[in-house]
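Appendix B, example 12.
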Amino acid sequence: MSDTRTADQRLSDLETVVKTLIIFNTNAISTLGRRVSEGNPAIANVIAADLSELKSRSYANIDKGLYDSYVDNLITGITGKA
């Protein structure tokens, strides 16, 4: 029996994969950043500044607002500050 899934079902699967990857990457990088900077706010601030610089770059074919939002979430995850 063949797998006869609709385009909507396949799109839904792709959306789930993308959301999962985004959440995983954000959590993993935030955890690493927190561990690296633990007990040293200066390191956390340098990491946050480096991440903020990523927002000044431009990329083709992405949602820039969404990208910047992910960067902001990483900064919050590492520094604990919004």
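The chain has a mean pLDDT of 91. Residues 7-37 form the longest helix (31 residues).
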